[in-house]
Amino acid sequence: MKESLKFIRLQQKELSLLGGVSALLNWDQMTYMPQKGGVERAEQISLISRLTHDRIISDEFYNHILKLSDKKNMKTLEKHDRIIVERLKKDVEKARKIPSEYIQRAAKTISLSYNAWQTAKKKKKYKLFAPYLKKIIELEQEYTDYIKLPGHPYNTLLDDYEEGMTVNKLKNEFNHLKKPLTKLLEDIKNSKKYEKQKPITGTYPAEKQREINELILKHMMIPSDKSRLDTSAHPFTIQINNDDVRITTRYNKQNPLSSFYATIHEAGHALYDLGLPKGVYKDTVISQAPSVGLHESQSRFWENMVGRSKDFWYYWHTILKKKYQNIKNQDTWYYIANQVKPSTIRVEADELTYGLHIILRFEIELLLINDKIKINEIPDTWNEKMTELIGVKPRNDAEGVLQDMHWSTGDIGYFPTYLIGSIYSAQIHKQLLKDQPDTPQQIRKGDYQDIIKWLRRNIHRYGRTLTSEQIIKKTCNEGLNANVYIQYLKNKYSDIYDL
Amino acid sequence: MKESLKFIRLQQKELSLLGGVSALLNWDQMTYMPQKGGVERAEQISLISRLTHDRIISDEFYNHILKLSDKKNMKTLEKHDRIIVERLKKDVEKARKIPSEYIQRAAKTISLSYNAWQTAKKKKKYKLFAPYLKKIIELEQEYTDYIKLPGHPYNTLLDDYEEGMTVNKLKNEFNHLKKPLTKLLEDIKNSKKYEKQKPITGTYPAEKQREINELILKHMMIPSDKSRLDTSAHPFTIQINNDDVRITTRYNKQNPLSSFYATIHEAGHALYDLGLPKGVYKDTVISQAPSVGLHESQSRFWENMVGRSKDFWYYWHTILKKKYQNIKNQDTWYYIANQVKPSTIRVEADELTYGLHIILRFEIELLLINDKIKINEIPDTWNEKMTELIGVKPRNDAEGVLQDMHWSTGDIGYFPTYLIGSIYSAQIHKQLLKDQPDTPQQIRKGDYQDIIKWLRRNIHRYGRTLTSEQIIKKTCNEGLNANVYIQYLKNKYSDIYDL
After folding, report:
1. Considering A116, A138, A160, which residue would you say is the last residue of a domain?
2. What is the pLDDT of residues A15-25, one digit of tens each?
3. Which of B86, B162, B173, B266 does the annotation list as catalytic?
4. Which of A19, A172, A427, B168 falls between 20 and 30 A from A379, CA-CA?
5. Are residues A143 and A37 in the same domain?
6. Which residues of chain A neighbour B230 with C-beta distances below 8 Å?
């Protein structure tokens, strides 16, 4: 028993170290790696992944877990060890269902597929990517066969990102959203204010944007000795170790809000990583987020509920005014940060149409996994749905089906977590306002300490002791509920567009 | 046979990938890591080291090597495979003499010792470091017992950095150097020009220094898509993979030559790394430098023989003039780059006194390994030798015995390679001028292509097919020869100081 406990502790510690090593290899690839370093970098990442997987599925590790999870033994364990062993058993048994040969084959296919996607996107030709997408879908189908969760095969894919989530639940929530969102979009388009879109004018030097970003990080209490802010093509957050969580942003000289909101978004992720449970759970499977969706709820919460609120701009418009010496007032910044602009591109989408982008991808992924659509039909379906849901049509494949890298990297089932995160963020926001009604006043002062304390207490500290939905239920008294999100959006946009 | 060949190829490939992973962890630690990430970074580095060592000493690997190195089998191998197997056998048998337990214990002691050294240096108190140095020396002595090369125990330590080098050989060369160097220093001090030292005045923005550094990298044909230039407390070069070799420098606004020469020095290392043999030797033990000293010869060659030559400044003084808008002419820059300034600090030493710094360390290391000096006597011995050799006395331990980190990291036997490299660089330079007499004219034009080609052909391409001394013998027709170095220094300083 003691020996087994010691073994699984050490194993988790080393897995966590290897995870950090892998994270650094990825971070460097996205930020500073010289261009030609990429080929062997892929090999380095793949080697560390293999070493990690081999460790997870090793018989020695599993036998220790089995020994500890024996009913009699479990009773003698302390509560936190029991939680760790249960969690580990589930994780390891899932991993052991996947043959190592599959892992390597998949890694290779993904690598080729990602390259093909890059070329295809550059040349705006879906055809160049299609055969690889076919292979990716076959790989994913093979994967669902190994794991075989009950119900729809897509459930298995979802579960990797959002444990316990099912197609039925999601369809229910997303269908619930679809009409109100398109209706709201319609109303906004018909409003008088919509006609008077305000473009951002002027140029905003990256150096000044960076200074403001550093300032918001300080306000969000991201410790500068445990973090970094860098630049990458796509902003991301990555944990290198318990005391090293890094975020990236990207600068657009024509739009100072682009890097600003990316930074706030990523800082939301970073706060979560830094707030995960330590102590008895340090370097264990518990000191992680229970799902990608809950992680996304934290970034969305900061980006939208805090960062795109009127109260937020009460404080920050003076900071931006000083820095850029322009004369935009609070209301203008608030409006610019929130104006609805239907676009074919997800990452440029406003808060309202963003959800519709996700629903589109979710629906196509379901068709793909079920073989209910031919690979070559996807662009047409994509474009039709885009027109139907958002009212815009991609001019080419790069603006349409090829815009996101997710499919090329085998991340089918990932997109929904973006919308799940958005819904959760609205629920969290609602509960926070109930628990701490002076939150808006604090936001007006640029003071986020109490918000962070509340998040630490109600979301972060659970780690994986509970599932996402359990955490949300515990904190917000109900599970995933799209209605809260709809209400939040209606209130916001009614105000902005005088609906 | 085929299977064994395949196995050792793959094993070397993965060891090389792991080496790169470790390199990235170190590079990041020295450049961008947030301060508090250090504790777990040490654990990550140590885990990768252990995984690497375990692989090197695994029975499976050794058995394949033994099988291949069987006389009969060797005969059937292609020449390059024979070379690889021989080299591997030597490396692996050496590594297998060290117990894994020792590796871990040493890593821990070094980590503590390095921290203690940092504190001690900050507080300028040798006493805080002394007990750790004692442990380091004991570890090194234990190590020499495992490997036990013939002769002086220090031979074993030397051999790790400079294969085949012995205390006797070194004593011979270094003693040979000592008198002429101190004599030359004396003559310079007594010269008229020495009295008129020229201080560098003005300030030189880091950004402009950086631009010049990027320019010299271009001239030195360092490919920008396979390299980076960053900033760190101590400049270094590190190879992340075959197509990713990074260098660092550091900026001193009062002295533009500091970052310039550091960059040239490190670029010399990088050129060597990039020029190591590929093809049949790619990702094998052969595609490495045979010794630290030969590696250092490349950096010294570029820094001193090229970078501190009069011809070099013929080209670069116009570049610096444009950039800094100051009026220093070629002769002034040349003089500033070469003026002799006895200092207590090795890394600030001029070309002449640098060697004396190394001799001092070499002599103390010999005493330490032989237990011929007590740990608490070292500062006094250090200061006496410093006064005797260089004519300056450290004002405190930070300027004396604590200035270098090498002992704290267990690198006893490393210092001599700096001087070996300097001697080799003079020999290489002499031969290059013989082989390509128009070299000075090319340097005057800032054109280093033919120099690089010559180095590739005569030094880089050998990798570890030969030892350093064999390479030097082959190229320069004689082994390590301090006389050439003395002659080079005499010629140079006679000219500068009108001796």
Report:
1. A138
2. 999 999 999 99
3. B266
4. A172
5. no
6. 32
Is residue B408 domain-resident?
yes
Interface test with A, best of B12, B15, B17, B287 (most A CBs within 10 A): B17
Q: Is residue B170 part of a domain?
A: yes
Q: What is the pLDDT of residue A87?
A: 97
Residue B131 and residue B378 in contact, taking contact as beta carbons nearer than 8 Å: no
Residues B208 and B281 in one domain: yes
Q: Is residue B111 part of a domain?
A: no
Please report the pLDDT score of residue B200 as a whole number.
Answer: 85
> Which range among A131-145, A366-380, B101-115 shows the weakest confidence by mean pLDDT?
B101-115
Contacts of B20 in chain A (CB under 8 A): 40, 44
Query: Is the domain of B296 the same as that of B382?
Result: yes
Residues A487 and A377 in one domain: yes
* First vs last C-alpha separation in chain B: 65
Q: What is the pTM of this model?
A: 0.95
Which domain range does residue B55 map to?
A: 2-96
- Report the gap between the CA of A322 and the closest CA in chain B (Å): 26
User: Would the CB atoms of B43 and A228 count as touching at under 8 Å?
Assistant: no
Residue type, B290: P
Whether the pLDDT of residue B100 is over 90: the answer is: no
Q: How many CB atoms are closer than 10 A to CB B72?
A: 6
- Residues of A with a Cβ under 8 Å from any B Cβ are 14, 17-18, 20-21, 24-25, 28, 32-37, 39-41, 43-44, 47-48, 51, 223-228, 230, 240-244, 246
Mutual angle of helices B79-96 and B38-56, in 10-degree steps = 120
* Contact at CB, A226 and B20, closer than 8 angstroms: no
Six token digits for residue A161: 């990102």
Boundary residue ending a domain (A87, A119, A138): A138
Radius of gyration of chain A from Cα atoms?
A: 23
DSSP A399: G
- Record: contact B41-A242, CB cut-off 8 A: no
Specify the pLDDT at position A232: 94
Q: pLDDT tens digit string along B338-373? A: 999 999 999 999 999 999 999 999 999 999 999 999
Residues of A designated as active site: 266
| pLDDT at A309 exceeding the cut of 80 | yes
Is B186 labeled as catalytic in the residue annotation? no
Same domain, B34 and B156: no
Q: What is the pLDDT of residues A197-223, one digit of tens each?
A: 778 888 999 999 999 999 999 999 999
For residue B376, name the pLDDT band (cuts at 50, 70, 90): very high
Closest chain B C-alpha to A339 CA, distance in angstroms: 37
Question: Residues of A with CB below 8 A from B41's CB?
Answer: 240-241, 244
pLDDT of residue B4: 97
pLDDT of residue A198: 77
Give pLDDT, residue A107: 87
Closest to B287 (Cα-Cα) out of B416, B134, B430, B464: B464
This complex has an ipTM of 0.94
Contacts of B437 (CB under 8 A, 6+ apart): none
Task: Give the mean model confidence (pLDDT) for residues B385-411.
Answer: 96
- CATH code of the domain containing B276: 1.10.1370.30
Q: Tell me: do A352 and A226 sit in the same domain.
A: yes
In a domain, B488, yes or no: yes
Are residues B190 and B61 part of one domain?
A: no
CA-nearest residue of chain B to A19? Answer: B44
User: Could you read off the pLDDT of B278-329 as tens digits, one per residue?
Assistant: 999 999 999 999 999 999 999 999 999 999 999 999 999 999 999 998 777 8
Which residue in A248, A295, A237 sits closest to A270, CA to CA?
A237
The pLDDT score that the predictor gives to residue B329 is: 87
Q: Quick one: average pLDDT of B242-255?
A: 96
Q: How many domains does chain B have?
A: 2
Residues of B305-342 as b/e, b for ≥16 C-beta within 10 angstroms? Answer: bbbbbbbbbbbbbeebeebbeeebebeebbbbbbbbeb
Helix B292-300 / helix B256-275 crossing angle, nearest 10 deg: 130
B25/A241 Cβ within 8 A: no
